[in-house]
Fold this protein.
Amino acid sequence: MTADAWAPQSEVPAFTPPGVYAPQWDTRLLTRALSREDIGAATEVLDLGTGSGALAVQAARLGARVTAVDISRLAVLTARINALMAGQRVRFRRGDLTTAVPGRSYDLVVSNPPYVPSPDVTLPRRGIARAWDAGRDGRAFIDRICAEAPSVLNPGGALLLVHSSLCGTDATLERLADAGLTATVTDRAAVPYGPVLRSRRRWLVQQGLLDGDEDREELVVVRAERA
């Protein structure tokens, strides 16, 4: 699937202030995958790194009981506002990924985490870059989610995770398999580089993560199921 094959959807949140990640192609690709899940009134959904709340609101629209987590106070506030504007009930927790929901488990976990490779070794502790910077290989959060997913999934539950192939799709599949989950790529989309990738293009080429002639990145949705 190419980016031109599907248009931005109208269900994205209306309110995204500066400092909060605005829904983009990755959000929409994951929303499509989410909408294919068998979600009902008893389905417990966890949205890790909710940002503007786009995925949490969509899961609530589908009838799920949703908990949304983000480490950013501004993101949690933004997601609350968007849920209210959409007339959807969502529980919010501020915290660092699954540490925000100790002892809880869910039928479906969705996440659009930071995944952009960064020249900076240290992860940002504030500012909008915290929404995308993910270490030198872009896997600082992906690897944590792969490792932590089994502890928050009910038997038969599933993880939906979106990221760029720049981070290594095979590495994600392998880590999820090592964690005891059955993982496959369910969605792919080739999308134009955004401003962050464009600004880092030279460095990414030097690192061997990009071809100098490329102008699109591949996004993937990985679905991993617990037996």
User: Anything to note?
Assistant: Confidence is low (pLDDT under 50) at residues 1-10.
